[in-house]
Amino acid sequence: MYEVAIIGASGYTGGELLRMLLNHPDVEVTDITSRQYDGTPAHKIHPHIRDSGLVFTNKSPSDLDVDVAFTATPHGASMKIVPELLDAGMKVVDLSGDYRYRDTAVYEKWYGMEHTDKENKGVFGLPELYRDEIKKAKLVANPGCFPTGAILSSYPLVKNNLVDRIIIDSKTGVSGAGVNPSSTTHYPNIADNVNPYKISSHRHMSEIQQELHGFEDVKVSFTPHLVPVIRGIQTTSHSLLIKDITPEELREIYEKEYGGEYFIKLMDEGEIPHLSSVRGSNFVHIGGFEIDETGRVVMLSVIDNLVKGASGQAIQNMNILLGLDESTGLKHFGLHP
Ligand SMILES: NC(=O)C1=CN([C@@H]2O[C@H](COP(=O)(O)OP(=O)(O)OC[C@H]3O[C@@H](n4cnc5c(N)ncnc54)[C@H](OP(=O)(O)O)[C@@H]3O)[C@@H](O)[C@H]2O)C=CC1
Ligand SMILES: CC(=O)N[C@@H](CCC(=O)OP(=O)(O)O)C(=O)O
């Protein structure tokens, strides 16, 4: 059995890591850390997780001794914790934005803070694109929730030089904002409502650009909306074609790119991907494949922000780091309805 630790285990993604790792056949969770709940049994904070026998501790990173450590901590905090874990010889999967950027200047611009660990470089942890690099990594930077669905649903378009402009519109569930309440997530402010936010300046735009821009200088824009669901991200992307292509050819390109991918499911013709179908699962459902008379391609994707958008993908990355089958412990379908 491989030993793993979850740092920041009292939060939403930490709780999801715990829920799924406790059912993983090849790992044992030996440590769950929290600063505020030192000494508290896991089920007092995550009431759905019973009989794990685990108690939160406030161990410092260098006191841990595991094969893989997950840092489910906010950006800014991770870059203080990760170097200690790496120095102590552990492999790390970081769920924050701290190590996702190839150029830390881009991070500093979009996150509005200095990056204090320019030495350690993460591999961008999107297995469907970077599996071979992840295998050799010491530090995996798990992608952001919006970027996961947005990149996967547009990547075949840019890889095949089909488009030069992508406009991405996403709807997210409220758990994306983490465990701490705020006026933005207060029930009367979100229920019966759709709230666009950071409409042209969300930091995930830079992460999506990083991954999609490189091909033919594709321009990418992104606008998120908060909707009154707990989990899930639905993304609609509108791309402008620069080559003539039929919807059938478009579908074939996606089938060729993703045919062997366990976690990517391409919808049948006319079938709309439903948010509820992926709730609780590590699957991405991709649909759309439509081209209108103006030459606009419409692609759709759905993920669970806490699973494929965070903790499930982090476990997928751990499986790759440990040389295990990528889908181990992650095969369950979603919770529809
Ligand atoms: N929620 C989501 O859908 C997604 C989240 N992410 C990213 O994953 C990370 C965790 O997110 P999420 O679980 O939602 O966040 P939460 O706010 O729910 O939990 C984060 C946990 O980290 C701990 N923490 C906070 N500050 C520090 C610190 N300075 N040092 C050490 N520990 C700290 C807290 O535990 P305690 O106070 O008990 O120590 C807290 O419970 C973030 O970087 C987030 O951006 C990525 C993709 C999706
Ligand atoms: C609903 C909501 O607030 N969502 C968050 C998603 C943040 C996240 O998970 O991404 P990082 O890991 O890049 O911080 C947001 O829009 O900031």
Can you walk me through this structure?
This protein has 11 helices and 14 strands. It has helices at 12-21, 42-45, 78-87, 104-111, 127-135, 145-159, 187-190, 204-212, 247-258, 275-278, 307-321, and strands at 2-7, 27-33, 56-57, 68-71, 91-94, 123-124, 139-141, 163-172, 195-196, 219-226, 233-241, 264-266, 284-291, 296-303. The strands form 2 sheets. The protein has a 7-stranded parallel sheet with strand order 3-2-1-4-5-7-6, with helices on both faces. Strands 9-10-8-11-14-13-12 form a 7-stranded mixed sheet. The chain starts with a strand and ends in a 16-residue tail after the last helix. N-acetyl-L-glutamyl 5-phosphate (X2W) is lined by residues 75, 96-97, 144-145, 172, 174, 176-177, 204, 224, 226.
Protein traits:
7-stranded parallel β-sheet, binds NADPH dihydro-nicotinamide-adenine-dinucleotide phosphate, about 30% helix, 14 strands, Dihydrodipicolinate Reductase, domain 2, alpha/beta, about 325 residues, about 25% strand, binds N-acetyl-L-glutamyl 5-phosphate, Rossmann fold, 2 domains, single chain, 7-stranded mixed β-sheet
